[in-house]
Amino acid sequence: MNLDYIIPNSWSIVEEGFHPDRVKASESLFSIGNGAMGQRANFEEQYSGSTFQGSYIAGVYYPDKTRVGWWKNGYPEYFAKVLNAPNWIGINVFINDEPLDLNTCKKVENFKRELNMKEGWLSRSFVATLQNDIKVEVNVKRFLSLDIDELGVVEYSVKPLNTDATINYKPYIDSGITNEDTNWDDKFWDTLNVSHENNQAFIQAKTMKTDFYTCTFMESQVFIDGKSVIIEPNIKADANYASFSYSYEVKQNEIYSIHKFGGYTVDRNHSKNELVSIAKSILKKGTKSGFSFLLNAQKNAWAKIWDMADITIDGDVKAQQGIRFNIFHLNQTYLGTDPQLNIGPKGFTGEKYGGSTYWDTEAYCIPFYMATKDQSVARNLLTYRYKHLEKAIENAEKLGFKNGAALYPMVTMNGEECHNEWEITFEEIHRNGAIAFAIFNYYRYTGDYSYIPEMGLEVLIGIARFWHQRATFSTEKNKYVILGVTGPNEYENNVNNNWYTNYVAQWCINYALENIERIKGGFEDDYTRISGKTKITHEELALWKKVADDMYFPYSEKHNVYLQQDGFLDKELITVADLDQSQRPINQKWSWDRILRSPYIKQADTLQGMYFFEDQFTTEELERHFDFYEPFTVHESSLSPCVHSIQAAKLDRMEQAYTFYLRTSRLDLDDYNHEVDEGLHITSMAGTWMSIVEGFGGMRVKNDTLTFEPKIPEQWKAYSFKVNFRNQILKVSVNQSETHFELEGEHDLQIKVNGKSVTISPNGLVTV
Description:
768 residues, alpha+beta, ten-stranded antiparallel β-sheet
């Protein structure tokens, strides 16, 4: 834990007291989004201190040319950067001509910031004494509408406390922005036009290279003590900027407020020639509805989300706050309404990792969205990958693979690989396995097989072809080996026979073969179409099977465990417990050379395979491997604590499972990895959800049946969650002595609890 200033609260993230050294961290933690756009919690008024300005539009990116020290054949040409979009939230505030700036005020008192997760809004309040000795009370609230997802609203109020004052609001929009993360300091935006009329302003701009056309817009209304006042604003505009000025003589203790409506229209959703007219219609709808009406609609929209997605924890406020923080940000990032979008690892909270699609979606996020929304959302995420299959084949061709072999990208915006670290781009090929596993996981959970003959089998064939060609026959071992890879543990590069990679390759081939036979026998039209398109032959399938049957897996007879990779036992096996804590985190303290030579594991690697394919290993095997590998795991990946929490719970190590749960749920709130100022870890937040539902709840699907092995940490009195299983809603409530199951549906649901069959009737309650 490196931060400890967020006040425990079941439904809100709360900060009290103004500390400039916390500003950038809080800008991340208090970020807001609505699936279509999002922004860091930057102050609306100017701030001259250290800050990370960031507003983002879903799906809008720039292909920043790759920058490396030494070019290697096969490198992606670019790294897709999520773009800091034109700023619409800004409201500069002047009091008797002095700017309100918390970095220069004489005193800032009663500072409070709140992210209300239940209702979906961000607020800030404080009392400031300016250099001119005027004392003001400020209250701000803003949200990004879920109902009108191109619209955001700000309510900003100032009350002079010790004198009358002239208060001047200067709301603005600005396209003269830069990215925090850029390779070459390129210009990302080209401003096409700045216009204004009445109280509205518009900036039309497009991205360089990718040509996304956008319109950033704003309109403002001002009030004195809640009553509307009409002020003819002074207007300032230039090539990248438009600002209105609303000045008013405010008496002591009067409240002068501005309501600012703003947002983006984008040619991803509309004709580029209609962006301004659509922006006008959005502003008309927003201003006619008004701040209070829109805020109430926001509360109702979030209530619907929480009704299904909420996890309650009784008796542990920090644990409760942690899980809701994770669920809230997942829903702010992706709502499943746009099949062209995916879940970026930083969401709308920062620019690191390019904001693009990673294997995290398939490995961690799909289970969350399947269970808390419906199968159509998960199917959209799988369809997204199917639509990128041709690009995956192109990615493989660039590396010398052929015959329709597909290598899905480690990082992408449009299906094309755009990650420019060699050990990731060329070697972290296990990501292919996550795509195939997600197809299997979707069918296992939903019972909807239709995706596989319609789309999924083509994906599986491309992936199997890749693994067949990537494997090498070793005459020394008389087995197929996979050389020169990086497994999930990114603290090991260019290793041979990473167990997880070899295992997932074997599984992918076998799963593809299984589904080819099933579709051949039961979906003849689809098989004819697919076999004609992919030109698979019996001879090719026989070669696949030989690779799968003869795959090599490194194993230690001494320790009775599969080895993470060849040579793992050659390392100096000093456990994390014996590592000097002043050296942590090692990724910020050690050279890369030292990390690669160490035994330290960034995240679950061998254990990741045992998590995915749990049914293929005994509990005793899991325990041996957990006991061997966890002591070397530094958990410096956000994806690490959740898997270990799930496995510790399965092994009945509840104190350890609870500790890992707190770490995954509060990873960002407590800044475990010293990096929260860069943005949040959105995709791993789905792993936090899994650590309760799959870990403590013990939920699995086995033999087409939903099963549970409920457990509860001693720190909790009770917890509950809901899952949408095959279009019926099951609520699970666990306390220290029993578990309750309630069903919202139309027909009986048979489940298994601790190995025993239980039948739940619609609107019925069963206690176990």
